[in-house]
Amino acid sequence: MRVPLSWLREYVDLPATETGRDVQAKLISAGLEVETVEHLGADLKGPLVVGQVLTIEELEGFKKPIRFCTVDVGRANGTGEPQEIVCGARNFSVGDKVVVVLPGATLPGGFSISARKTYGKVSHGMICSSDELGMGDDGTHGIIVLPPETEVGKDAVELLELVDEVLDIAVTANRGDCLSIRGVARETAIAYGLPLRDPALLDVPGPNAFGYPVKVSDPAGCDRFTARTVTGLSPEARSPIWLQRRLQKVGMRPISLAVDVTNYVMMELGQPLHAYDRHQVQGTIGVRRAQEGEKIVTLDGVERKLHAEDLVITDDRGPIGLAGVMGGADTEIADHDPSEEGAGATTDVIIEAAHFDQVSVARTARRHKLSSEASRRFERGVDPQAAAAAAQRTVDLLVLLAGGTAEAGVTEVVAPGAPHTVTMAADHPDKVAGVTYGRETVVRRLQEVGCDVYGQDELIVTVPSWRPDLTDPNDLAEEVIRLEGYENLPSTLPRPPAGRGLTARQRLHRRIGRALAGAGYVEALNYPFVSEQVFDQLGLEADDPARRVVKLVNPLSDEEPALRTSLLPGLLAALRRNDGRGSHDLALFETGLVFQPRDAARVAANLPVNRRPSPDDIAALNAALPDQPRHVAVVLAGAREQAGWWGKGRPADWADAVEAARTVAREAGAELGIRKGQYGPWHPGRCAELTVTVDGAERVVGHAGELHPRVLKTLGLPARSCAMELDLDVLERVGDTVPQAPSISTFPVATQDVALVVDAYVPAAEVEAALREGAGELLESIRLFDVYENAEQLGEGRKSLAYALRFRANDRTLTVDEASAAREAAVALATDRTGAVLRG
Description:
The protein is of the alpha+beta class. It folds into 6 domains: 2-42 and 165-192, Phenylalanyl-tRNA Synthetase, Chain B, domain 1; 48-162, CATH 2.40.50.140; 214-414, 3-Layer(bba) Sandwich (Phenylalanyl-tRNA Synthetase, Chain B, domain 3); 421-488, Phenylalanyl-tRNA Synthetase, Chain B, domain 1 (2-Layer Sandwich), CATH 3.30.56; 504-594 and 629-734, BirA Bifunctional Protein, domain 2 (2-Layer Sandwich), CATH 3.30.930.10; 750-838, Ferrodoxin-fold anticodon-binding domain (Alpha-Beta Plaits, 2-Layer Sandwich). The strands form 12 sheets. The protein has a 7-stranded mixed beta sheet, with helices on both faces.
């Protein structure tokens, strides 16, 4: 909302020394977001005067039309002689009054004016357009032609109100009242402690039986409809300069007198209005819901197919406007065409000032992708009590400026209703802010915003009609706090009780992040939003539980309306993006929540703000949320070890993804089972299924390995990319999260190697598990250091696994016999379980 300071001063007697910056500071302190203060005409310097065109000579021989003009500027040039000016514009004639800038002046943008020779003539100044003066769009983009009665030689800076300050306010969705000069003036008056001259306080005649007939069939969608009629408008009447300039300063383009007046009153009072050509309206004006299949051509010339929820304005023919959004072309106000002696010009108008349902208008505007100044205001809340005053103000201006006659008939259709009241404890704002304001301050501040307040310890507050956002005690408390000044709230550090720190879940989360970072992974945080098409790209089965998603009611992007059930979509997108920007050796990780819908959906209740939520409150709130387990995932591509003078290096492969899972499991203190698996995006021959034992039963907690080539092609990922994902919450439940100090023995280690030949399909993890169990408590560590395959030596479909076994005791030095016996026991159990044969 753009607010000219000169317009604001009409309703609030601000001190003459107050600048736009001063008003900005006051309004920001009161809670309004004043983004900028624009200084119009700050670099404008005269002389800039009104001139009358005396002669026009067309210059020939140039690529574009050029005119040599003489202009009477009175005594402004010091001589009284006509001013000679060269101009290329064509929209003015001899006798027209124009704006002339004389040599020595400076136009906006630092453009200095001097006498100069051009097109074979000397031009002593310029005839100005609105663009050159920084006035904004006037719809013509040509020379400013002033009314004939304008005095020659008059200062044009003052006439056109070129010097002003304009406050640009970002109005939040709950403050629809501030989308008007009236609303901002009220806030300014409160901030300065000055009286407000309310422009809506007008003498308005009561409704009678002579008004234009109106029928409202949907009182829920339109609870108030005021109609007034003005006849005999002069077709030649044009908006005066002051009205055009005010519209330009607030960012609107002047169109025609009747339309300009309705726009002016809307910006002044915040009440959108619409003017109908009376001769184009057929029969009774109605308000109802649209019927399926109905169509309307709106003022922008687009034919729109209506929805059954659209609220429309009708006459006997059908819809003539989208209520609260835009009028129809059939009843559009027609402007006078000077070339046709008033043909087609509108002389009689019906003024509509109505109050429409916020939600209905918002949905219609979004459904038709048709946002307008009117819909912006109705969506945020319009004062229903201002409709009659706005209609009266419009009628008064049309009578004054266009010579019209106001008909005596006044139509008002009003649905029954009562003012909204809120009951609030007098000390409620004190409790919310942690500051003692006292009853007197609370009552005074509420009265300043327009509330009627009764009661002592318990206040009964009647909310003003222009503040529909004040619905409960917390809203009233906010009004008191903001007007007393947010900056006056004390800064108090909370005092946490002793003994509380991070939860076990938080500590595990941090340990895993440090461990993965230490292993060379870079954390990449992603948005939790996904499209449902990504599950097809990942190759998930149609009945996969991961396809059950929580959908957002109001997503940030229509392309990603669901919450993630896996971390992989976001990580793989980050991998693709970084690879596309030249980073080919990548190892990324993320820990975060995934979202799984519950079978029985519940609605979360509003928690109180005057006390700490009880355990039951928090439990009920959590029960209404989807399940949100924490996962960890990694993705790899390119080189895992760089080549250099130290060696060849190697690419990342499935084993690195499995090792990342082992790293996470070690930090969680969980025993991780690893076996061959097949799932979704992973390569069926290079996928490990990750398991843990929960309550005596084995449970799959994730997968790791190389991604399927089809998935890589679909998502545009580098070849041989790998990934891993684990359920951290399950690991936390089964793991020992209390760090255990390692047992350090001072006795020497005994190392023995063993090579076992097994079938090629036998996982090395199974052989290792059997060796570990068979070796017993003397085994300190086991390491696979060689895998050998040779059909001639080992046989077809066989492989050799070589392990280094380290034995050590805490209380003695092991003998060779003890170490050998442990080795033989390990080999015996591996032979029994996996069919392994000791390699000779």
